[in-house]
């Protein structure tokens, strides 16, 4: 079934609720948008993560952690290294 949507002056597109529900999207979820043969394709960014699962080696220090825990720890390590106090 085809649906009509309007692009706002801010270039925002509202996904019709029937399609939104059918695809299992959630409010605030990130999506990937690509152009294929003149058509726009929108997919959940989580689907990319699921596709890559198993193909990316997990560092030993992250083994046994959930994705959220890995992200939190990686951010913490990154910012600690980035803002490490310089000796005077």
From TrEMBL:
A GO molecular-function annotation: DNA binding
Annotated ranges, domain SpoVT-AbrB: 5-50
Domain of life per record: Bacteria
InterPro entries: SpoVT-AbrB_dom (IPR007159), SpoVT-AbrB_sf (IPR037914)
Protein name per its UniProtKB record: SpoVT-AbrB domain-containing protein
């Amino acid at each position: 079934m085809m649906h009509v949507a309007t692009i706002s002056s801010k270039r925002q597109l509202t996904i019709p609720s029937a399609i939104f529900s059918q695809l299992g999207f959630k409010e605030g979820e990130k999506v990937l948008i690509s152009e294929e043969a003149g058509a726009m394709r929108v997919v959940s960014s989580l689907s990319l993560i699921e596709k890559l699962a198993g193909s990316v080696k997990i560092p030993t220090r992250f083994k046994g952690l959930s994705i959220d825990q890995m992200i939190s720890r990686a951010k913490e390590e990154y910012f600690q290294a980035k803002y490490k106090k310089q000796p005077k």
